[in-house]
Structure formats: C-alpha cells, structure tokens
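Progress note, sequence design subtask.
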C-alpha cells in the first residue's frame, strides 16, 4: 500500500486493487489498512495475514514518523553526505534509485543491529 500524507493525517491505497483507507496517525492507518484488505478479500474467502501487506512511504514521512532515527547518524553509517541526506528527508531533492537503495539498506542494517541487542535491566 502506498502511503501519502494528507491535511488530516495519512491515506493509503493499493496500486493494483480498489482498496483505500485513511488514518490520523501511521499506526491508525496501518490498523485501518489491515481491516480494509480483510474486507476486500472476505467475499472471496481469502484470509488476510498482516505480514504480507507492505507499506511504501517516502523518506520525508519515514523520518517524521520514526524521528528516533537521526538522519545525520544514518548518513555517517552509510557514507553519505549528511546535508544531501537531509535534503532527501526534507523533500528538497529526490534520491536516485542507487541512493535510495543505499539509504534503505542502511535503515535495514540499523534495524537488524537493534534487533540483535539485549538490554540489561534489573
């Protein structure tokens, strides 16, 4: 589902199917999208699994939603000029396919690193 920012929150649509939904927040949108997909396929007896729905969001919305991920940190991690990444994040420039893949790979690398950390707690 392709996610877009609206004046009142977010909207999402499936590129190849007549499935549309909205949400005030990204989390609301995801919940509503799962429900919309389930309803769409209900008549056909297809059971929806949440793990097969993929959301596409632009860099600006991604970094706004996941504001704990620092663009400067990511730029240093992937060997990109921080100012250039900032321009992508703020929508002033659009990355090439190669640059976009480099950024996505860096985000996935950080996600993998975080998932492998064990935190000590009392």
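Output:
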């Amino acid at each position: 589902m392709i996610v877009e920012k609206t004046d009142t929150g977010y909207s999402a649509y499936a590129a190849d199917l007549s499935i549309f939904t909205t949400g005030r927040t990204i989390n609301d949108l995801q919940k509503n999208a799962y429900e919309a997909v389930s309803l769409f396929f209900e008549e056909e007896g297809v059971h929806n699994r949440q793990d097969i729905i993929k959301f596409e969001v632009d860099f600006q919305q991604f970094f706004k939603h996941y504001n704990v991920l620092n663009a400067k940190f990511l730029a240093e991690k992937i060997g990109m000029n921080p100012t250039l990444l900032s321009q992508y994040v703020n929508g002033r420039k659009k990355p090439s396919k190669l640059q976009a893949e480099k950024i996505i790979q860096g985000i996935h690398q950080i996600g993998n690193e975080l998932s492998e950390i064990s935190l000590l707690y009392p």
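The first strand starts at residue 2 and ends at 6. Work on this subtask will continue into the next period as scheduled.
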